[in-house]
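Schema walk-through. Below, the input block comes first and the output block second. Nothing else is stored per chain. Lengths vary across the set, and this one has 348 residues.
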Amino acid sequence: MDTSSYITWSADPVIFSIPEITLPFTISIWGLLIAAVLIYFGWGKIKPEQKRGKKPVEPETWKVLALGIGAFIIGQIPFLFVESSGIESIGPIEPRWYGLMFAFAFISGYLVLTKAFNDAGRSQQDLDRLFIYILVATIVGARLGHVFFYEAEFYLRNIHLIPQVWIGGLASHGAAIAILIALYFYAKKTANTTFMWVADRVVIGVAIGAMFIRVGNFFNSEILGVPTDLPWAIVFEVAPSLSAAEQMIPRHPSMLYEALIYVILFALLVSVYYKYDKKPPQGSLFGIFLVILFSGRFLVEFTKETLASFMEGFMFDMGQLLSVPFVLIGIWILWKKVDWKSSRESES
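--- output ---
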């Protein structure tokens, strides 16, 4: 097939590479643990006393550096004479575009939530606690979602590989379920907070964060589309999941389709948020998010290669089956739970 008329994607998923560096001496792992303990107890000694009603004062920089360097040296001294497992080299260091995009996803989400919490007069402490809930739920949920939705048979035989996120997959549906569970418990433990209130604000950040993650998938040449002859098809020359012959076939850039949906969804959620003067009807943004995002996912799945091999030959794939319940829940929320009339009256 003549692929000269199609866009070719062959970018290296690694941003830059620093070769392995051999250390001049072995760093004891036990010595690092001792240093951590010394820093923990030493911090209270160098931290200035906080006066009542005054802004907290951070310790002087030189004291922080002295504590860190001193704790490291003291921790290592015993293991100059006692044999211990240690670190002899560092690297190679190869940061990847996907990791950078994942970081951008959380940073952008955090900034969105900071704005929403400030608009509502909520405390920084409540925001930081929510962010931890979301961070843990995203990673754990996405991993378990992939394990149980797409490769359950393999991972049930190799349970020890489940925590190894760096060599396995992540599933957005699993992350979605875990985040919703996390939001439920967060709302239960936070005063004057309902599930719908916090969900309405979190989904704005999730929408823009999901866009960054799909761009990261593009850099990794993963979540590929099926072959197509459409003019915007892309030839993924370095896709690790494809054979050399398959890499020369033009395909749907499915991950970019999803990224575009998330950008449009983000713009819509923000417009509704400001239309109601930063106080949208409870459940409105959450319902819109569920309907549009997972309807989009359902449609884009038609352009994707099947991830769950056991579902090949079925009319719908696993991603579509998992999307349907979210769409139905979103429709139910918008129809039954959102008090649109009350919101219009208060607006007028």
